[in-house]
Amino acid sequence: MKLTPLKKVINLEGKTAIVTGGAMGIGFGIAYRLAEAGVKIVIADLNEEAGNKASKELSDDGFKVAFIKTDVSNEENVKKTTDFAVQTYGSIDILVNNAGIYPIIPVMQMTSGNFENILAVNLRSVFLFTKAATEVMIKQNRGGSPRFSSGVAGKIINITSIDALHPSSVGLAVYDASKHGLWGFTKNTALELAPHNIQVNAIAPGGIITPGTGAGQPTTPEMENNLKKFLEKIPMRRMGEPDDIGKVALFLASDLSSYMTGSQIVVDGGVLLS
Fold it and tell me: What is the 3-state secondary structure (H, E, C) of 29-56?
């Protein structure tokens, strides 16, 4: 059997991706690597200032990118964003469900409003975007019955967390519940969508330096101490960078992962080993 040249395997020219929470941090790292592979990027983010800045940065580097302000937990917003992607670039081929929040609130101090908000952003949003994007992907798939037809109709990449496998800190009980739920959702939708040639996989990051976490830039003695303790648990002795996740997302979005669905890739510097 003649192998497809590597350059073609990772070439994603003509594809369109929606990256939720793509304005900064892990989301931006993913958007950049996909754009580098030829993907037309739609950044869906609630932070308008950061979204416009990220869009400009990618555009200045010669990539095709559009930003749309999106409340990922709002069904009307999600439909507006998927419609925007199709109207702007003609398709939806890759969906990256990256948006998430992680307020540190012990259960005994948490309100029902806190609980509902975390689940809305971290889990409800994935359901809404998966359903809306999948409808587009299935319609795009050519050739009659989609069951086991040639070619990939779509790729869905969910950003879970090592907390989907093991708790990391008191105060993240509902965050952990949302990420466990997302891992379960990933596996079951992978099963459901496989006949449509839509692959659904997840990435579970460990400690990543992002603006949201402030990791790597501790501002108080307590934060410095917490970071030191966390670093001691990481066999590789460093925090991850957004690009560490971006490169794995590119792997999952490309044909490098052509026989994978329902899988979760842990990217944590080995912290779960400890």
Answer: HHHHHHHHCCCEEEEEECCHHHHHHHHH
* Cβ contact 93:141 at 8 Å: no
Q: What is the mean pLDDT of residues 54-76?
A: 98
Domains (range + CATH), the chain: 10-213+240-269 (3.40.50.720)
Nearest Cα residue to 19 out of 121, 108, 99, 128: 99
**Catalytic-labelled residue, pool 32, 102, 175, 259:** 175
- 28-32-38-40 Cα dihedral, nearest 10 degrees: 30
Confidence class of residue 96 from pLDDT cuts 50, 70 and 90?
very high
Q: Is 259 a catalytic residue?
A: no
Can you tell me whether residue 150 is helix, strand or coil?
Answer: coil
H helices of 37-124, where?
48-60, 75-89, 112-119
Name the one residue in this structure whose structure tokens are 């008191």. 170
If one compares 123 and 148, the residue with the highest pLDDT of the two is 123
Instruction: Region of 171 please: left (phi>0), alpha (psi -120 to 50) or beta.
Output: left
CB proximity list for 4: less than 8 A, separation 6 or greater = 255
Q: What angle do CA 170, 119, 153 make, to 5 degrees?
A: 120
pTM score of the predicted model: 0.93
Q: Which of 68-82, 139-153, 165-179, 227-241 has the least mean pLDDT?
A: 139-153
Kindly indicate the confidence band of residue 213, based on its pLDDT and cuts at 50, 70 and 90. Answer: low
Query: Which residue from 64, 183, 168, 44 is spatially nearest to 123, judged by alpha carbons?
Result: 183
Task: State how far the Cα of 79 lies from the Cα of 99, in Å rounded to an integer.
Answer: 16
